[in-house]
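Two proteins follow. First one:
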Amino acid sequence: MTEITLSQAQTIIATAMAHGESLGWNPLSVVVLDAGGHVQAFARADAAPPGRFDLAHAKAKGAVLMGLNGSELADRAERMPELISGARAAFGQLVALPGSVLVLSTEGAVIGAVGVAGDTPEHDAEAARAGITAAGLNARP
């Protein structure tokens, strides 16, 4: 598999949002990007602030363009702030926080990323992983 289909992206979003709702989390916004950083699908839960798209997108964009999960980007930002500063200058909006997870092909190649915003960064990442798994795809550990 070399790409995330629209059907898979919609499954990721629906599952991630349902996962958060079932656990009583704040309303989530979820974006799925392809390997080039383009939006495949997005949804914002009722009552989620409109700015959540920008945050979810910047999380996912950072992950896919840097080839690292959000938690790995956060670690790099702490250890090498100049790297993240340079990436922001090159790519524009980029957020180095947990809450974005890379989607991998069966061969281990990056085929996209999921960014979630709305609850804690750790919960956001958990919701992304739940969605990726439900779509029959692989999440980067």
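Second one, unrelated to the first:
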Amino acid sequence: MRSVHRPLLVTSRKFHSTIRFAIAFDGSPTTRKRVEMVCMSPLLKGLACYLIVAGSINAALDESLSWARARLVQAGFDRETVIKAGNAEQVISDQVGELDIGLLVMGAYGHSRIRHLIVGSTTTAVLRSCTIPVLLLR
């Protein structure tokens, strides 16, 4: 997956149609790029969108969230924001189940391979714990 520079859909379950999707959002420039990709693509048009944030809000993240909300509304998405304290893997997995999300959009391996070996990967952990399709955008 690290070498693929195109969107990649990872799914191991039976297909179910979906009416809502979520974007794992941390306010980083790459997360903003993911929001732009979703807004410019016809793939998810007409679906409800949730922005899922793990952790606490600071000024920079609040500014990024405001931008993301406005951009999604401008693109025609109904959107909601969920902010929960905790580590990203657990928060994302919990919210996917709680909100009945049918597709998760997130980045793929945003950190170095060294950090991945020492700390682990949020992407890998979410792929293991989520039982829904995950669209990985680089």
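SUMMARY FIELD: Strands lie at 8-10, 20-24, 48-54, 79-84, 103-107, 134-137. The chain has one domain: 19-137.
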